[in-house]
Design brief:
It contains 3 helices and 14 strands. By secondary structure, the chain is mostly beta strands.
Amino acid sequence: MYDTSISCVLINVSPLSEGWVRKKTLLYMASVQSKGKHKCGGFLINEEFVVTAAHCDMKNMTVVLGTHDLRRVDDKTMRYRVQKCKHPSYNDDTLENDIMLLKVPELSKTMATIPIPSKSTYIKAKTKCRVAGRGISKPGSRETVDELRVVDVSTIDLKVCEKEWRIIPANVICAGGYKTKKGFCQGDSGGPLVCKGEAVGIVSFNEKNNCTYPSLPNVYTEISKFLPWVNDILQKKSC
């Protein structure tokens, strides 16, 4: 079986294309929080909805938008209460259908968004993508980081991923981890896998507490497989 602990970013990164995110970039990234503390990532896809992982569901949830640095949060203009739209077939034991939409009230200002696929897509193996988040960045640490970090990862053939894990949920993408030193870590769950400018995946799970030298691929929920459900919510503007 695969581990279902909250996952996710990045160790041993190149200073040229990876590492700390520049100010005022990737501002579509959300911090999903409980009682004012970062727990998961997420990403804004339009002026009303943030996408995250269903396993990030928790009490007293808010999202922080519009900053790459959680030390500089204006609660009046950056923190929002949410309405949770968790996939009705989500399974907490297997992480099947690990996707959730969070409806935010009217934004205080214009925010950056990131597109998702408009139709079912096929992501070829070895496609170069990026994943960003505020997860644990040092081996042995339990502390997430305040500033966004980003790393390049390549997608992995699904047959290889299935062989290594032995069993994985349906409708996933595998990228990073597995024979590399790049991937996500605890605290990055819910963040986007971005390929060719689109958010195509949602950080779901990795090998338990093994972010530095993972022997198994990192696993993401594949967004395009859930478009009918997502589009229905976006059209109704409600769960």
